[in-house]
Amino acid sequence: MSAEAVRMEGIVKRFPGVVANAGIDLTLNYGEVHGLLGENGAGKSVLMSVLYGLYRPTEGQIYLNERPISIDSPAVAIRSGIGMVHQHFMLVPRLTVAENMVVGWETVRAKTFLDRPRIRQRIEELSEQYGLGVDATAVVEELSVGEQQRVEIVKALYRGAEVLILDEPTATLPEQEVAALFDTIRALQDEGKAVVFITHKLREALTICDQVTVLRKGEKVGSVPASEATERQLTEMMVGRDVVFEVQRERLESEGRPLLQLAGLSAVDDRGVPAVDEVDLTVHDHEIVGVAGVQGNGQTELVETICGLRKPRQGRVEVDGEDLTARSPRDMARKGLVHIPEDRHRRGLVLTFSVAENAILGRQYEAPFAAGRWGQSKRAIGGYARELVKRFNVSVPGVRTAVRALSGGNQQRVILARELDREPKVVIAAQPTRGLDVAGIEFVWEQLLEMRREGAAVLLVSMDLDELMTLSDRLVIMYQGKIVGERKPRDTDKQEIGLLMLGGAVEAS
Amino acid sequence: MKLLRELGIVGVSVALGLGVGAIITAATGYSVPAVFRELVRGAFGDIYGFANTMTQATPILFTSLSFLIAFRVGLFNIGAEGQLLLGGFFAAWAGFTLNLPPILHVVVCLFFGAAAGAAWGFIPGWLRARRGANEFVTTMMLSYVALYLTSWLVSPGGPYHGHQWANQTARIMSSAELPRLMASGRELPSWGLVVGVLVAVIAWYFLFRTPRGYEIRAVGQSPLAAEYGGVDIARAQILAMVLAGALAGLGGAAEILGTHRRFIEGFSPGYGWDGIAGGLIARAHPIGAVFAALLMGALRAGGRAVDRAGVAPSDLAWVFQGLVILFVVAPELIRYFKRIRLRRRAHGRPEP
Fold first, then answer.
1. Computed from CA positions of residues A361, A364, A366, A370, in that sequence, does the dihedral angle turn out positive or negative?
2. Taken in order B275, B278, B280, B285, is the CA torsion positive or negative?
């Protein structure tokens, strides 16, 4: 049962100026789920990329089935029975599931044509065996995120994976699908596969893993059996200190000033299908209102419509009593409404721009950054960026560094710094902690609470129910573009919210 | 450091291009040493060779800048050739029609050229930004419109046919001429080169030191983030295309005022197309464009020398040029298309 599959010894991986892995030992056994835990930038993905042949280790040796092996490329890894499901799927959207199986891995040799029936049959076998429910003839782009992930798993198995690396498999998954993924992982385990589960979520690691190895800043902190570990212990190992998960959300009296008011707001999505349906919502000063909902129920469109990025079909958006419906994002920001976008890589930042250039995104025409239309003060921009970096504790080599080079947490800090420094009346925060590590989450929460303390109205859209329950004064639940319920966190629980999110108990409640 | 690496890449690419060119030369039975001797002599061998290189580089500098400024906003200006022709014609028209004092006359002529090019850039820019028409197609097609329009204007049936046996306009007044940089001679660079370098510096300043340039770069790098940052994407695209057209038009004007002194049908051997390569070799950097244009100019000058010396047919010289461009540009183009594809995929839009 616990025969050794892979042993990595003293793996060192250096990049110019960074040691991503500083001598890490790791043993994976067949029939075991091994959790790889650590904050963003701890070196988890690098270590697994070494195993998968994407990076060559600077030092160290890998043993597969107790024999030394040199994995120069993913092709070698696949041939040796090592498969990886990346966080961002490597599927061709236009092709069917069956066609995706053989992209870059054509099973035909002498023949010129694909043996479609055989490919399909094999997929069905695997799908059956592991309870994956994958349809070989489906076109990938029509599948949900969870289904695509299962396709990736089938793909790895199709190619003969005995060791399967799952890189943050739950990061992009809606909460309902996580349980199904765990079932799949257990099935893999029962079949004797060695599974690596990369995550930074403690609870998941404790639920699904047999053994948990914690990395911090490129070093291995320790490896413990999940049955003997506690959340607190793992947290300490991850961040090296006690993290106060209970943030201070003091009682504050709202003056009852409605800073953000939505009246009958409706909008359509990119395909022209109604996505936001007559939403009425008011957020007052000193108040955080959480928006819960399964992804794809109009939250994204709602946020975009409020922020001027999407034209409303009807309805009104008012900021502090002023009608600002369908105004440009720049106008909205000038009137005191700022936006922490859910897609920080494509919306929130220009990744190839420097920290300094990103620090003034949206303020490019404001003094002292601009001198009229035809001049820009690099000095003012650089000085301002350095000040923000210091005040918001962004860890960067310098403000001329491209934000692409920063970790996710630091990228989010840049966005928060830029937006919150404008002393907003209204903050629209969409998925502000998605993909962040513990320290990053804590920082974002503190900043949002600080905004509330200062009297701003905060609209928080999140997929993380714990986050919503912790931070919100009030919670509204969105389902199919409508607000279907409103609760106070102290009067409800996650089960009830979960039901409302699925459109279930609307009438009953 | 980064500059050195880029220069290294370009150097190796040039060497590869020349290497493959040498193989083809040998295979077709011509003397490799003789061809190389003429290539180098024609481009750098003596003061006239280098002067020739600079003369050839001048219009390419303008069209490279034209290409790269559109590239920076994320658009492909394939139509610099047409913008250049139109700019050249209108500069010539202003040169032989208006009667102005010397320096002012030159400035006015350059302005006419830039304005004509700008108009030819505005149309595809507007169509793209407001109507979604692919700028690749529209700029290319408008290029042909400009080519045949100017051709007709100076043909025997056209209104500006200024010569009995050649399709060209009348000569511009001497007050409109851009003087040559060195002593007189047909193959010497004019002050157009100085104007070009100056414009390159201005383009750099615009892109990297003004809010408008910042917006153009933001749109090119990440349209969603630009929109979020309050940038009017359509306006940025139109502005970049207008500027791209103006730069190519200015190049045409400088070429007419400095080299030909009249609009001649077919005066451009494809400077507009060279600008695409030039802009890419420069990695879309205006200062880099100065050096990229010199490289392209050297290839043209060297190629002409090979042809003139009779060591190989001119076709072979153009093969050399094509190979070098191919090797220098290919990696950059591949990177670019890869990025577009990634971006389209990330947007959830189907690939074309």
1. positive
2. negative
CA distance B284 to chain A (A): 14
- Whole-Å CA distances, A498 to A175, A429, A468, B62: 10, 21, 12, 62
Interatomic CA distance for residues A151 and A169, integer angstroms: 13
Helices within A341-477 (DSSP H only): 355-359, 378-391, 408-420, 438-453, 465-471
Identify the bridge partners of residue A292 per DSSP, sorted by sequence position: A477
Q: Can you tell me the ipTM of this complex? A: 0.81
- Taking the Cβ of residue A493 and every Cβ of chain B, the question of whether any pair is shorter than 8 Å is answered with no
Global pTM? 0.72
Q: Which domains does chain B have, with CATH numbers?
A: 2-346 (1.10.3470)
Chain B residues touching A329 at Cβ < 8 A: 227-230
- As a CATH number, domain A4-239 is 3.40.50.300
Burial B327-350 (b: 16+ CB within 10 A, else e): bbbeebeeeeeeeeeebeeeeeee
Q: Which of A346, A342, A447, A343 is nearest to A393 (CA)?
A: A447
Contact A348 B228 (CB under 8 A): yes
User: Residue A168: exposed, middle, or buried by beta-carbon count in 10 A (0-12, 13-18, 19+)?
Assistant: buried
The domains of chain A are located at: 4-239, 258-349+414-501, 353-401
Contact A348, A340 (CB under 8 A): yes
Check CB contact of B226 with chain A, cutoff 8 Å: yes
Q: Could you tell me the two tokens for B341?
A: 């594809």
Q: Could you give the CA distance from residue A406 to residue A18 in angstroms, rounded to a whole number?
A: 12
Residue identified by tokens 């940052």 is B229
DSSP at A118: H
Which pair of tokens denotes residue B299?
A: 């290839």
Please give the CATH superfamily to which domain A258-349+414-501 belongs: P-loop containing nucleotide triphosphate hydrolases (3.40.50.300)
Neighbours of A182 (CB within 10 A): 17
For residues B349 and B340, what is the distance between their CA atoms, to the nearest angstrom?
Answer: 11
Task: Give, for B281, the enclosing helix (H) or strand (E).
Answer: helix B271-281
How many whole angstroms separate alpha carbon A421 and alpha carbon A297? 31
Torsion sign across C-alpha atoms A310, A316, A321, A326: positive
A329 has a chain B CB within 8 A of its CB: yes
Tens-place pLDDT, residues B272-331: 999 998 998 888 999 999 999 998 898 888 888 888 888 888 788 788 888 888 888 777
Q: How far apart are CA A330 and CA A327, in angstroms?
A: 8
Q: What is the pLDDT along chain B (352 residues), one digit of tens a residue?
A: 567 777 787 788 888 888 898 999 889 888 888 888 888 888 888 878 888 889 899 999 999 999 999 999 999 999 999 999 999 999 999 988 988 898 899 999 999 999 999 999 999 999 999 998 889 999 999 999 999 999 899 888 888 887 777 888 888 888 888 888 876 555 678 888 999 999 999 999 999 999 999 999 999 999 999 999 999 999 999 999 999 999 999 999 999 998 888 898 888 888 999 999 899 888 899 999 999 999 889 888 888 888 888 888 878 878 888 888 888 877 766 666 666 665 555 444 333 3
Task: Dig out the tokens for A360 from the structure.
Answer: 């003034």
Contact B218 A353 (CB under 8 A): yes
